[in-house]
């Protein structure tokens, strides 16, 4: 019997549409998307499915009603065709059953997590599929808490990239918009500065500062120091023994041996100095070392462990209390960082022309100088500020840190800054500078390897490790951070001096959108 071409076409369309709809419905269930919300392609598939069903029903119905007698050959051919159709239906059902089985497997794991039989933190290793682990953890969390995670994205992120290094037990990711300030003219080079923030006005204000710097000839920066620190705490039976180790560590003849032991931790680790402080029988040892293009906390910690093991041979009564004794000092405002520096110490300056101050910044040189003295210097002193002699350095530091994959908690010491403004050239122009002694940044490791953050580093031309000059990418990034802070300080201080701060925030930092109905 000759096969009707129309039947073959409709059977093919029918199976394809069913397969497509099954896949789409499964994805919606996984992503918690309402099934009744359909796209144009899904609507077309549904219409095609209905049309195919009608045609197939008419075809088989007509065959049953108008049954004709076939010859033996024709009957054999027809039986063969129906058997082929049956096989196709079997294949389709088998595929659908597999889809249900996969969903069933997910449900079984979800129940195990909810009941506590399977720890949530083991999902990635047990399933071998990071995204599936995130989905299951997410659903389990919603059931346990009774709270919806709708609005927290699941798709569009590479969960493999954070496994074992950036985040544990993920359930999604937070979206932060990234704006660009610039061009920022620094040391003769132009930079477009990425800033991840949810604060309206911040990028626009920094961008205005960049413009003022650009048309005035640009900013100049100097790297003063480059060394990450770690300070373990050790204890002895007496203060005298603690002092003995202090003198041993500070003896210049011993430094070379200690440096060789320390530097085994990495080919980029280079011990620079050791500084000690005693509190009774407790000794705090602050190691400072270069770390290449990495921020370097892990590198310096490993080097410290090497030295402590070495010292144990000569000072067997030394009791190591902790690898960090807060004399480092990490993620806390501390005078030791403000005075001695930590990470990259940078000073950045620019001379803003009188006409630029008036036309771009909408204020005067005298007003800025007076405001800076009374606000950033005197006001901060009245508040007992520690490293906070500025208008809002942490705003810019945080935004650039988030965009480029830095540790946001290190914004604390990285935002230590003193802003200076002085009238120069007979009082006509403005000399503005920021001095930041502890900018802690890196261009390798941690969040810098994530796709979005890596793209922002690439925009600045400092992505990854510098192959020619180790550490130069991280140092350049620190200079860009300082220059961006300079731009931000210049613009905000001008807005305050001109009485525009409240007006601009009311315009750009307030939303009239009512979101209460969504919750």
From TrEMBL:
It comes from Lactuca virosa. This is 3-hydroxy-3-methylglutaryl coenzyme A reductase. It is a multi-pass membrane protein. Belongs to the HMG-CoA reductase family. Pathway: Metabolic intermediate biosynthesis; (R)-mevalonate biosynthesis; (R)-mevalonate from acetyl-CoA: step 3/3. It is found in: Endoplasmic reticulum membrane. Keywords: Endoplasmic reticulum, Glycoprotein, Isoprene biosynthesis, Membrane, NADP, Oxidoreductase, Transmembrane, Transmembrane helix. It comes from the Eukaryota. It catalyses: (R)-mevalonate + 2 NADP(+) + CoA = (3S)-3-hydroxy-3-methylglutaryl-CoA + 2 NADPH + 2 H(+).
């Amino acid at each position: 019997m000759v096969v009707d071409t129309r039947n073959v076409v409709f059977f093919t369309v029918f199976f394809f549409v069913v397969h497509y709809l099954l896949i789409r419905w499964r994805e919606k269930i996984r992503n918690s998307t309402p099934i009744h919300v359909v796209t144009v392609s899904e609507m077309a598939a549904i219409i095609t499915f209905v049309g195919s069903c009608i045609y197939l029903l008419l075809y088989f119905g007509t065959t049953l009603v108008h049954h004709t007698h076939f010859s033996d050959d024709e009957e054999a051919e027809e039986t063969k065709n129906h058997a082929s159709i049956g096989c196709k239906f079997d294949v389709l059902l088998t595929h659908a059953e597999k889809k249900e089985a996969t969903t069933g497997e997910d449900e079984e794991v979800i129940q195990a997590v909810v009941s506590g039989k399977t720890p949530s933190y083991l999902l990635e290793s047990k399933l071998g599929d990071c995204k599936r682990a995130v989905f299951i953890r997410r659903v389990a969390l919603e059931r346990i808490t009774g709270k919806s995670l709708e609005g927290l994205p699941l798709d569009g992120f590479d969960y493999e990239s954070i496994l074992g290094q950036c985040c544990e037990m993920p359930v999604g990711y937070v979206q932060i918009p990234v704006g660009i300030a610039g061009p920022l003219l620094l040391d003769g080079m132009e930079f477009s500065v990425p800033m991840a923030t949810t604060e309206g006005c911040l990028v626009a204000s920094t961008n205005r500062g960049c413009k003022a710097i650009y048309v005035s000839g640009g900013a100049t920066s100097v790297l003063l120091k480059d060394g990450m620190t770690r300070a373990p705490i050790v204890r002895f039976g007496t203060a005298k023994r603690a002092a003995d180790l202090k003198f041993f560590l500070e003896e210049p003849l011993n430094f070379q041996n200690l440096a060789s032991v320390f530097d085994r931790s990495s080919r980029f680790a280079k011990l620079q100095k050791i500084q000690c402080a005693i509190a009774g029988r407790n000794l705090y040892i602050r190691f400072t070392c270069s770390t290449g293009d990495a921020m370097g906390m892990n590198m310096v910690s490993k080097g410290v462990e090497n030295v402590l093991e070495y010292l144990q041979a000569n000072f067997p009564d030394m009791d190591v209390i902790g690898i960090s004794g807060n004399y480092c000092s990490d993620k806390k405002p501390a005078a030791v960082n403000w005075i001695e520096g930590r990470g990259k110490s940078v000073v950045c300056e620019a001379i803003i022309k009188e006409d630029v101050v008036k036309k771009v910044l909408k204020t005067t040189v005298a007003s800025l100088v007076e405001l800076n003295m009374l606000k950033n210097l005197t006001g901060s002193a009245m508040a007992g500020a520690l490293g906070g002699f500025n208008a809002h350095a942490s705003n810019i530091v945080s935004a650039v840190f988030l965009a480029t994959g830095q540790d946001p908690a290190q914004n604390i010491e990285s935002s230590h800054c003193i802003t200076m403004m002085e009238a120069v050239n007979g009082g006509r122009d403005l000399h503005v500078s920021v001095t930041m002694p502890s900018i802690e940044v890196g261009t390798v490791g941690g969040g810098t390897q994530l796709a979005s953050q890596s793209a922002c580093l690439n925009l600045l031309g400092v992505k990854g490790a510098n192959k020619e000059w180790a550490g130069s990418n991280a140092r350049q990034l620190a200079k860009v951070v300082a220059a961006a802070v300079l731009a931000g300080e210049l613009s905000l201080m001008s807005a305050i001096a001109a009485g525009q701060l409240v007006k601009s925030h009311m315009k750009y930092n307030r939303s009239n959108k009512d979101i209460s109905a969504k919750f």
